């Protein structure tokens, strides 16, 4: 119980800090935010009106207080460019980004588990060496470049998948999957490499445990030992690795959406930065960071639940 | 198959030195001026005159890739330097003083770690105008928590060590203990992290520049070259290949170097232990 309480405490502390940081980011703009948005040609009246709209005319403490209260009411302000609440803009774009993240996660798990087992089983042999080369390269290839290459090979040359653009799930699940598969694969490649390397190490550790020797001496089949005993134990740390990389997967999708011209968080954030839409940037940063912190919390608690032996360091 | 011992380290050293040499050469010699445009030679394939072909303005891709390596190494070097400096100050303070100072600083680092690296960079870029310096600072800040954690845990492990207590009783001051007695023990994990972060910096810079939010023209960047190449991908695939291969090889080199040094240190610790 102690662990859960402490972990929740850290979670709320981090959340407050995240709210504070997103607030600061918006306020440390050199000079006046209204001036930065409208440019030097704006009239004083325009500047004053925008300052009022942004709340930048009030004292900082009051601004932070109202930002805190608004956030607690899920009110993240209004986008300057779209004149729409930030939250509804983000929700409207979330299906693309979440689909990408989930498909990438599925690809990662489905590919990494057999590869990791294969590498551990052939430890020190040619297959292990080959897999380690592939994972090293997978870790080094920038995901947006592998995205471009995937477009070149499977989009233009073979014409198996669409080379960009997005078809909503509601329109056609098949076409939606066809438009999301390549970008998800590009996001998944470095993740696969990470999980394979991790899984290989944990499986090799598990293979040296007493219970494996016992299982062998009982006369169990090798496949039973691998799948029923070793994999079960080796997967626990993998859950953490995958969960902890949720932030990376989300960040990866921000860039990959640009490569495949998908209307998700990435394109919204990049266009918000381009048009200096500060309320939108602030809200998006807060929500993305919140998601990452929340997933990390869930992963920590799940890990604890899966492996009660684990002591909090 | 008989594998050479620690092949990671040797391939890493080879790739990093090759890329470093490539960058050094670019200071003294470029096949062409990287901004020289030849409209007749637009999107020409690799040939004897242009080994890696030309881009949409007829500029020599090899020369631009060579110039781009300077940006990649600059970003890698300075952002890691910022990360180590910041991490050293925060990690040493937290680890040496301990108690509530440690608690506050480390919770702060946890919160900073909650932001994906590219988000921190994007926020900084949206506040200030994107350019080379902004990119370096943004990536450097992202590295601080990682180094701070390594250095803090080193301090926790060593501040009660016998040789530190002995030094204290011999009258050594705090600064002397930190610099001469505790820090040297942390060299190897910091070097490993530096090498791995160097490659991460190159990847983040390329991603930011690809989005148009990193290094701006006229500074050359591999990431931006990839962005420009994408519009011509079906006409001139070689344009998209060259910068990507150079990013991959450089990143691979630093990754292998980091892994190799870690393996080397693990073996050395093992031998020391015997």
TrEMBL record, chain A:
Membrane topology qualifier: Multi-pass membrane protein
Keyword Membrane: yes
Keywords, ordered alphabetically: Cell membrane, Membrane, Transmembrane, Transmembrane helix, Transport
Cellular component per GO, a single term: plasma membrane
GO molecular function, one term: dipeptide transmembrane transporter activity
Transmembrane feature ranges: 9-29, 96-117, 129-156, 176-199, 234-260, 280-303
Top-level taxon of origin: Bacteria
Places the protein is found: Cell membrane
Family matches, as InterPro entries: BPD_transp_1_N, MetI-like, MetI-like_sf
Ranges for domain ABC transmembrane type-1: 94-299
Family that this chain belongs to: Belongs to the binding-protein-dependent transport system permease family.
Protein name (database record): ABC transporter permease
Organism: Geobacillus zalihae
């Amino acid at each position: 119980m102690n662990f859960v309480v402490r972990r929740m405490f850290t979670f709320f502390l981090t959340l407050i800090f995240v709210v504070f940081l997103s607030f600061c980011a918006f306020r440390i703009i050199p000079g006046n935010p209204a001036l930065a948005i409208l440019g030097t040609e704006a009239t004083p009246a325009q500047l004053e009106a925008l300052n009022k709209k942004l709340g930048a005319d009030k004292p900082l403490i009051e601004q932070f207080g109202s930002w805190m209260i608004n956030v607690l009411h899920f009110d993240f302000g209004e986008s300057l460019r779209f004149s729409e609440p930030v939250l509804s803009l983000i929700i409207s774009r979330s299906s693309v980004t979440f689909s990408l993240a989930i498909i990438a996660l599925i690809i990662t798990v489905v590919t990494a588990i057999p590869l990791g087992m294969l590498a551990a089983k052939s430890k020190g042999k040619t297959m292990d060496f080959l897999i380690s080369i592939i994972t090293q390269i997978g870790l080094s290839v920038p995901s947006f470049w592998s995205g471009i290459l995937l477009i070149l090979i499977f989009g233009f040359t073979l014409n198996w998948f669409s080379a960009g653009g997005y078809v909503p799930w509601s329109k056609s699940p098949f076409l939606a999957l066809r438009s999301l598969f390549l970008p998800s694969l590009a996001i998944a490649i470095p993740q696969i490499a990470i999980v394979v390397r991790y899984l290989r190490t944990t499986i090799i550790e598990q293979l040296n445990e007493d219970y494996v020797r016992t299982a062998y001496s009982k006369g169990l089949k090798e496949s039973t030992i691998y799948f029923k005993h070793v994999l079960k134990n080796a997967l626990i740390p993998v859950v953490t690795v995958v969960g902890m990389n949720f932030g990376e997967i989300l960040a990866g999708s921000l860039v990959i959406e640009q490569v495949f011209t998908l209307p998700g968080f990435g394109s919204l954030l990049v266009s918000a930065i381009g048009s200096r839409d500060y309320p939108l940037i602030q809200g998006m940063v807060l929500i993305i960071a919140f998601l990452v912190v929340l997933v990390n919390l869930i992963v920590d608690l799940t890990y604890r639940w899966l492996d009660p032996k684990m002591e909090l360091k | 198959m008989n594998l050479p011992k620690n092949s990671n380290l040797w391939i890493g050293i080879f790739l990093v030195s090759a890329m470093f040499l490539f960058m050094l050469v670019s200071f003294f010699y470029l096949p062409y001026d990287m901004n020289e445009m030849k409209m007749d030679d637009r999107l020409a394939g690799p040939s004897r005159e242009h080994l890696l072909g030309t881009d949409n303005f007829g500029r020599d891709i090899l020369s631009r890739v060579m110039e781009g390596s300077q940006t990649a190494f600059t970003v890698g070097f300075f952002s890691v330097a910022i990360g180590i400096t910041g991490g050293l100050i925060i990690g040493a303070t937290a680890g040496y003083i301990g108690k509530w100072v440690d608690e506050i600083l480390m919770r702060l680092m946890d919160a900073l770690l909650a932001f994906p690296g590219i988000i921190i960079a994007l926020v900084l870029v949206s506040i200030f105008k994107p350019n080379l310096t902004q990119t370096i600072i943004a990536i450097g800040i992202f590295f601080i928590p990682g180094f701070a954690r390594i250095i803090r845990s080193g301090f926790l492990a060593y501040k009660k060590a016998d040789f530190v207590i002995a030094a204290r009783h011999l009258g050594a001051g705090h600064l002397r203990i930190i610099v001469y007695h505790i820090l040297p023990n942390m060299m190897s994990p910091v070097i490993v992290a530096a090498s791995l972060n160097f490659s991460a910096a190159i990847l983040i810079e390329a991603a930011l520049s690809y989005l148009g939010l990193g290094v701006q023209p006229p500074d050359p960047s591999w990431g931006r070259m990839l962005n420009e190449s994408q519009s011509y991908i079906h006409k001139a695939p070689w344009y998209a290949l060259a910068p990507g291969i150079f990013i991959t090889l450089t990143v691979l080199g630093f990754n292998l170097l980091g892994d190799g040094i870690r393996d080397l240190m693990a073996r050395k610790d093992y031998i020391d232990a015997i």
